[in-house]
Amino acid sequence: MSNDTAPIPIILDCDPGHDDAIAILLAVQSPRIDLLAVTTTFGNCSIDDATRNALRILTLAGATTTPVARGAAGSLAGMSELGNYVHGVSGLDGPEMPEPGFAPSEKSAVELMQGVLESSDHPVTIVATGPTTNVAALIQQHPEVVHKVAEIIFMGGSTERGNHTPTAEFNTYADPEALDTVINSGIPVRMVGLNLTHQALATPEIVARMQAMPHPIGHICGEWMGFFGSSYRAVWSFDSPPVHDPCTVAALIEPDLIAWQECFLAVETKGEWTRGTTIVDLHNRYERPPNASVAMKLDTARYWDLVLDAIDKLGQGR
Ligand code: RIB
Ligand code: CA
Questions:
Q1: Cβ neighbours of 39 (radius 10 Å)
Q2: CB 295 within 8 A of CB 193
Q3: Which atom of ligand 1 is nearest to the CA of 43?
């Protein structure tokens, strides 16, 4: 298999979370992805719940040999803003889920990331779908493996408004110092912000396609969207929930699924009202060199075909 068709080795750092859960299923199923490890972070829920949820999701998907390691319980600055108001008490409320079929690694998230990078024959992509605390800690504690990171593609920020606050998206708000470290690490960075993920709505038609699948995984995904959608209606008056996190994995599987813009990116770490806000200089007003690729346009129909096909294939195989 030539290099350009070899599966892309990734570490998925996440805070499952309903949309993280779909991202995990997509990464497990896609032949274009080699999921080397899953690491967990606080965010949508506590680190204990995020880790338990990751194990449950991987058990559901039959991926019980994928290493999982527990990561940060709070931000670099010691804060632990949580998103249970969106994802429920467990962080994955809604359908019954299997209990974890395997245990997490004895290693911490940073230790597992470091080990995977050190032993990999090829550069590894880090996909971050929660606060980037673990990724920043890896960069700070293990500069010797930074050259083994092909790129960091993160779900977070926005070129427009926020969600957790009027200007800040949740993942960046939860640890702005971590994102600042990521942006300034010298590692290629791609940002998949709310401006992109709000194009990935789980409409009733999409949910109906999940529910029509002849297997439990499809039904569970449909119920996840039901709970997630109820939160989005209650908090932000969305008719349908934006399924943020799988956009990162989908961008790796189908590179032309998303249109990107190279530009200068920064994150506010000091603002009294704007902490966690991403500053995306789309018109080069600061006249600073571009330091990130920012996702701008999603081929929504292809995105959902990709995600639903993966869910169905996974379900048929279980
Ligand atoms: O703001 C949306 C992001 O925050 C998503 O990654 C969601 O899972 C939460 O982590
Ligand atoms: Ca997430």
A1: 33
A2: yes
A3: 10
Residue 4 Cα to ligand 1 middle (Å): 30
Residues framing ligand 1 (Cβ under 6 A): 15, 17, 19-20, 43-44, 83, 129-130, 155, 163, 169-171, 244-245
- Give the CA distances from residue 156 to residues 20, 194, 311, in Å, rounded to whole numbers and listed in that order: 12, 7, 24
Sequence ranges of the domains in the chain = 8-316
In the prediction, which pLDDT does 70 show?
98
pLDDT of residue 318: 81
Ligand 1 atom closest to Cα of residue 169: 1
Out of 12, 13, 15, 172, mutate this one to test ligand 1's pocket (max ligand atoms within 8 Å of CB): namely 15
Residues 315 and 216: beta-carbon distance below 8 Å: yes
Is the predicted pLDDT of residue 3 greater than 80, yes or no?
A: no
Average pLDDT on 256-281 reads: 98
Q: What class, spelled out in words, does domain 8-316 have in CATH?
A: alpha beta
Question: Any catalytic annotation for residue 244?
Answer: yes
